[in-house]
Fold this sequence. Notes:
GO terms for molecular function: sialate O-acetylesterase activity. Residues 103-341 form the Sialate O-acetylesterase domain. This is Sialate O-acetylesterase. The protein is α/β, with parallel strands linked by helices. It contains 9 helices and 23 strands. The protein folds into 3 domains: 2-100, Immunoglobulins (Immunoglobulin-like, Sandwich); 101-357, 3-Layer(aba) Sandwich (Rossmann fold), CATH 3.40.50; 369-458, no CATH class. It is 21% helix and 28% strand. The strands form 5 sheets. Strands 1, 3, 4, 6, 7, 8, 9, 10, 11, 12 and 13 form an 11-stranded mixed β-sheet that branches. The longest helix is centred in the middle third of the chain and has 19 residues, at 264-282. It starts with a helix and ends in an 8-residue tail after the last strand.
Amino acid sequence: xxxxxxxxxxxxxxxxSARVKLPSxxxxxxxxxxxxxxxxxxxxxxxxxxxxxxxxxxxxxxxRADAAGNWMVKLVTPVAGGPYQIAxxxxxxxxxxxxxxxxxxxxxxxxNMEMPLRGNSSPILNANDIIVNAxxxxxxxxxxxRAATLSPQTDCKGxxxxxxxxxxxxxxxxxxxxxxxxxxxxxxxVGLIVSxxxxxxIESWMGKSSLDGFPEVKVPVSIDTVKQxxxxxxxxxxxxxxxxxxxxxxxxxxYQGESNRHEPQLYGKLFPVMVADWRRQWQQGELPFYxxxxxxxxxxxxxxxxxxxxxxxLKAMSIIPNCGMASTxxxxxxxxxxxxxxxxxxxxxxxxxxxxxxxxxxxGYNAPLYKSITIDGNKATLSFYFANYLTSFxxxxxxxxxxxxxxxxYPAKAVLKGGQVIVESGQVKVPVAVRYAFKEFVxxxxxxxxxLPASSFxxxxxxxxR
Length: 466
């Protein structure tokens, strides 16, 4: 009897171990990137042959697992559509259902990306109306479970869900509204993968090798006794980005920087390196990377750390290929870093994706960008890219400052003339430099006719910020 039970147990164990195991990002309700060489991968018994059959073409792909049971296959996805099934068979059949083919975006960063539609200590503007109208079987949502490790992981916690009022409520408010805009405009399935943790610095989201050139960033050798390991370099890349690297996507949206505001110069160096490393590890070329500039916040900090971090992000646009920045100069809150209006930055990211990545004509996505300064007597004339006309929407311009060679800035009178701003002050006879909105908290005044606000900027590069 004992022998029979032992044989039965071994047979059962063999059956379980032989069954194909898939990473959480490959499962029911997922979206695969359309018209791509999409990768599917997982684990099986060592050296087992795995057959994968896709219902959109009824084609079977065969792959043999290595000795450790790892396997991967590339398959060609069709144009957007579905729902489909994908069957995996190594002797035991595993089938995933309700699979769509469409557009997939990874959405990452810290708390203003993580903040769900239900809100937290702060509410989300118009959340209940957004939640009520969230039912959309063509929009799929995946949130990566929080995980901080010192070694790159091959899997993460999470599951794909159809967008409903229930599932959208706990999903990133910003990412949801970005994806909703894309889905409605493109009329194809959209999949959103959110990987975000509040209160984190960019170093947490960077792989170890990408930090080799930064000796000032110390990668820990152990996190066993650390209470908040997700705040340490490399830990979130390893736990929450590495498991996604094989999943083909269309692009990234990113909202992070508040936790790096007191090291703007270092951030300006780290950010392009992180983007380049993510692209290298995804192995899909220069994937679109659209990011939100941190919003104005607070007024007690006299070091100008906020505008300096915004400046570092603004400069990144000229360093990082195929990127774009959404300005939030008009939605920040002086006393709350988690501002309520996530619709505006979500839509501005959507403008970048729709206009630049998908090539839809007529959509403005570039905000006014400072181009040059010309001095004539006591007046400074500023010119801009992406602004044939500038506007303040009939409100006075109060955020310009002007300085002479003494580097002392005075409030300036500013007048719009087409796509230029003419700035002067009776206290500055020979202007040398102009700044706009270069403070911790401001509310935007300068826009182009697409309603996009100019970033804070300065024409000088003086280290002595006053």
